[in-house]
Amino acid sequence: MTEAMVPLSILSKSSLSICLKKFIGVTSTIGSIRNRYTRALPSTVLANIFGNNKGKPFGKDATVGSDLQRAVNFVSPCLREELLCKSSEPVRDCCHKVTIVGAGMVGVAIANSLLFQRITSHIAMIDAFPKKLEGEGMDFSHSSIFIGDPKIEYDTDFCVSSNSKVLVICAGVRPIKGESRLDLVQRNAEILKNIIPPLVNYSPNAVFVVISNPVDILAWLTWKLSGLPAHRVIGSGTYLDSARFRYLIADRIGIAPSSVQGYIIGEHGDSMVPLWSGVSVAGVQFRDIIPNIGLETDDERWYDIAKEVVKFGPIVRCLKGYSNTAIGLSTTDIIIAILRNTQAIIPVSTLVQGHHDVCHDMFLSLPCAIGENGVTNIIRMHITEYEKKLFQASANTVYKIQKDVNIKS
How high is the pLDDT of residue 77? Predict the structure, then answer.
């Protein structure tokens, strides 16, 4: 039995003093522990699990030890107020805030890439699954001291995205076996109808970067649903495809992938168009060495590389269950160009109406200069007539699906 449990009437003055000091120390410790591990978690997470009543705190209304507490009338000082002398109000949302909608494998890979490279110090995450979201958010928060003390927010409510500079859309359903990116469109279109309007409401000046597939149609749909100018909606498009294209060429030659210049344009999908006419290393055009490179008449069969690029995504998903690392890093490159206003040339999905004789308002990939306001310039590609026909065929493939998408809710 401890001294704190002995009736007050049988204690001497000296014993009472010791008892009170020990009791105050214990209750202060309990209070500090409770305060340390209790924070304002997303209301939609805890409210559904515990309800709104989180229990009575220790204090004057507590039943245990209430007589002793009234006798002591102890008021603990607020450490924060004693430690800090406020000079001004902190900024709620920094100018380079990035919100990621969708905390699945791709969303987490993008967050990892942004945080580990210290591209931004303020990230918000939104997801429909509160337990998964809270777990990811806590994991990032616990890593804070290793990645530059970023501000990490997470909630199932769209309000957490307020004042974002970049909104990354990763939400959507995964393709099932045998299902193409285009087969996904109607299911993911319904998801976008519910998330784009509130996101625009909370961040009317943001640039949208769409990752969900089929990315070209969903980027177009995001543009339509948001009411934003087309240059502020960007699809990740063929940037990753172009990286895979350059990797395979470099691997075959035996040089660094970054030393190969080459682009894939059109659909991020089966009808993508490799631009063999523009592939070069150190300014040396491959076409100057092999005039028919990439064509079916090419004896070295370089055209097989483009066929491999088309298969890479499904192969990776088949082997590991999903693909996330490369798309996370490529998306971060796009975000860097926006946050730092670099005007970097990146092949992304953008409004291509009027380019290469495409007459429909639709999104496909072309090399674009990207800055703070999104796409600032689209490169006028000097492509061959054969490549132009392939690009138009890619546009027709996408438009056949897009024209049946119901924009209205």
Answer: 78
